[in-house]
Design a protein that fits this description.
Number of helices of chain A: 10
Largest interface: A-B, 35 and 35 residues
Helix content of chain A: 25-40%
Number of strands of chain A: 16
Radius of gyration of chain A: 20 Å
Oligomer: homodimer
Shape of chain A: globular
Chain lengths: 337, 337
């Protein structure tokens, strides 16, 4: 059996993830039992939630244990098979995988990735994967956009945010994105059709939002928390909705406080709902039925930022928090067959 | 026409409401036009939300203007009538009234108060009025209690909280109340059938809650905000719900921050929804159909704390914030006919 490189969690990071928090080790892949396949990882997804899994804070899955392989979303190809339904060469999603070259999965767990003409594999790791479903269900199920409403999305040039904004535009909403830097803001308005963009690094978010959304905010798709969240909540309308998808600005800190003006949530009868995409996995087909045609017809634009080499995963993860990536952040662990 | 005493807002209170913030003045009641009635106020409702109306913070109704009569919920008797549908002697609710002896209302606005055998008029100012509807809709519509779930209610011995807890018990829930002082706590567990009560003035709320609700909290009916809210949110379960009804601990302060651990709202996919009872007025009949039989059969217990005399309204209001009242706080403005 081939050698398997694995990123193992050595200690819980404090603040930013550092080189001593994880270690790249080598093991042998185990022998297969009947019904199992050996999957060679093609792409590893890097997501803000990885930082949460490394911590022992209250979270939606058990924290990764010290000494365990780091958990991650992956897509791979079956390289050896003892499962008739998954012959060698099948492209599969083994559910939650790990930061490693190989993973063994049973045929009941690994899900075949459909081939869509003209759609690259990386789409299944982004717009047609957990990222796209996060955007779809958070916006549709919690946000419930109505034509003419104003939607604000933070981390708008990010993998989730960029899909949220485009879906909201397709629903007939006015969409304002909040992102870091003029280049990202230009991408939102020039390429994705957002009605406005706010550069939180150089602009006064509250003042710009008041200018761009003079009728207030009906949906705040919240990805960042902290001061940006406060600025948006301060302009949320009566009966507005706030899908709480993430608070990336707080993931390297000890605290993640709620909106400083919580009285507004009461006075304006605002709905806030935390959600995690795994809750919606039973409804994945519903999202894919809507998203796949939009992707195939290029009505929905998306980008992947692919870093080569499993050995670079840890360094690459830092980009999530600096914003120094252009599209869904992926690691190419091995070449596509 | 009779002389009308009115409490007029003179300035916006800072912190606790003081004697210079409102003034009791005398005017003459106006002549009636066709279709109008002169209503003599019987009972005036004192509610935490009155404090909000006195401020100019963001709120759900326009703030009471400086120089205007203070707004308040009232019930009264038609003393003079130029409306055939509302003869003299009819008991009516004129919608939102004021802190005054008399109010003129048109027959389209004043709603006849039904006579229920064995149910005193004060019930219509509490358990069968806005108070009861607040409890009913917040719990049922947002909380959606299921048998066996754990419900926590703060300000549990208050007018709303005591109804919330009893309704949750009727739905088969385990109910823990948070109240101030051993006497109130005893009332909750001995008289109202709560499964447990926590005295926030003398006990560690988080520690007691962990003891009384070992399976965590499924519904937090939030009335107080601040530290008590934080203690409860810290023990809310995955997919739990938080009807946000009030934040009385913050009404005399400048700030009303959200939960300090907002990350938990995300990780546990908690639903938070602010609400105001006036949003549910179109569905009032639904609540009354459920509540009236429970009141008439004494399955639902309630208390009114009646202070005599309009001139004592301002002093009485302070009791809302100290907790120094025993049941729904009302002012008897004039005797029942």
């Amino acid at each position: 059996m081939p050698i398997n490189r694995q990123w193992v969690l050595r200690r819980r990071p404090e603040g930013e993830v550092g080189p001593d928090d994880l270690e790249l080790v080598e093991t042998l892949t185990p022998e297969l039992n009947d019904g199992e396949v050996l999957i060679r990882t093609l792409y590893l997804s890097l997501d803000p939630t990885n930082r949460i899994w490394m911590s022992d804070q209250v979270q939606y899955l058990p924290p990764v244990k010290i000494g365990d392989v780091m958990r991650g979303g992956v897509i791979g190809v079956v390289e050896r098979s003892r499962a008739a339904s998954l012959p060698e060469g099948t492209i599969v999603n083994p559910g939650l995988g790990g930061w490693q070259d190989y993973i063994v999965a049973s045929e009941g767990v690994a899900r075949r990735v459909p081939h869509l003409s003209g759609v690259p594999l990386t789409a299944h790791m982004s717009v047609l994967g957990a990222t796209g479903m996060t955007a779809y269900f958070g916006l549709m199920d919690i946000g419930r956009p109505q034509p003419g409403e104003t939607v604000v999305v933070s981390a708008a040039a990010g993998a989730v945010g960029s899909i949220v904004g485009q879906l909201a535009k397709l629903k007939g909403c006015r969409v304002i994105g909040i992102a870091g830097g003029p280049q990202k803001c230009r991408w939102l308005t020039h390429d994705l059709g957002f009605d406005g963009a706010i550069d939180y690094k150089s602009q006064d978010v509250a003042a710009e939002l008041a200018r761009l959304a003079p009728n207030g905010v009906d949906i705040n798709f919240e990805n960042v928390g902290g001061k940006v969240m406060d600025a948006v909540v301060g302009q949320m309308n009566t009966f507005s909705r706030m899908p709480l998808c993430g608070m990336i600005s707080t993931y390297n800190s000890e605290t993640a406080p709620g909106p400083s003006d919580f009285g507004r949530v009461l006075m304006h009868r605002i709905l806030i709902k935390g959600f995690i995409v795994i809750d919606y996995l039973p409804r994945a087909a519903e999202a894919l039925a809507e998203l796949a045609p939009l992707v195939a017809s290029h009505q929905l634009k998306w980008k992947a930022h692919v870093v080569d080499g499993l050995e670079n995963a840890l360094d690459a993860m830092g980009r999530l928090f600096t914003g120094d990536h252009d599209g869904k952040l992926l690691v190419r662990v091995s070449p596509e067959p």
